[in-house]
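Work Package 3 (structural annotation) set out to generate three-dimensional models for the target panel prioritized at the project kickoff. During this period the team completed the workflow that converts sequence records into discrete structure tokens, so that structures can be stored uniformly alongside our sequence database. As a representative example, we reproduce one entry of 349 residues exactly as it appears in the project archive.
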Amino acid sequence: MTRVTTVVGEPPADWDDLTVAPPGGQVLQGAAWAVHRAASGWRPRYVRFEDGRAALLLTRRQSPFPGFLAYAPRGPISAGDAPEAVARRAIALADWVRGRGGTILAVDPVLDADARYDELLARAGFRETEEIQPSRHRMIVDLPADGDVEEAFRRLSKQTRQRVRAAEKAGTLVEHDDAGTHLEGFGELVDAAAERKHFTFAAERGFVAWWRRVLATGQASFHVALNDGQLLGGLLAYRQGGTWATAFSGDRADRRRDRPGTMHLLRWHLIEEATRQGLAWIDLGGVDTPGHRRLPEPGDPGHGLYEHKVGFGARWVESAAAHEAVLRSWVYRAGLATRSLRRLVKPRR
């Protein structure tokens, strides 16, 4: 087993090199996300393990009860190590949180599904829980090894290539907007997309501020699709783990008939750039939704999006579930009971 060696309240100078840049690295384990969440009342703790790895831990008091909640957003990262090593870090975090009176710990590293990881966590008292992020699984696009953009385009399905060309023919252009000129309008598009796909999102809950912050770090890139100066769609991708990963996307659903292929053009633009940069693969993000944490089937909310991403040559990758460990069961049960009571007595409008 590994142990926690140090925990500090300010990010060390090399923090993002430890948590964002390595294999499996995640922007939500970085210093920028810690600062963003601190503005909402979370307390960042920068944790180092004796195996040389690190994890961002966010904690929050749960008044009026004793103790605190703890969450390692998209962590602890794998850093290229075996799943067992990731599990040992999660267990070490649980030991540290328990020793300081914490009530519950949630972890959700981006990790390929692995029975050994699940077994080690189960032995330590963790259990699977609903995802904190919108999706669990990923859609990965493998890129040509020689950076051949024409080969990357040939790998798209015929229908996807036609959609890309249709968007270009309709006069739609994709531009970088890393200054964030269109972020507010993009937030409205993402809100609408979330409603269509049946998951909770509200751009006004600090997301626009977060997007501006992460763009300023250089750990994200914002692409917008414009036609006659009108925003038709956007895609914001994180640079993490040595590649690009789609984080947010959305388009004008009411313009899909007269301005087709907006999201096809945006995703192709990201694939094209990644190919030119010599990356081995990129992550197009998930397609599963709450209640449907599996390969989408016809009729599932994510099936259309799944087929859309398959058109880019994306393959479905099963990923590990989020887990939580209840560390002080009586406080946890009391909190659940209180929340249930509040729902019962809440005045109806």
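The longest strand covers residues 230-240.
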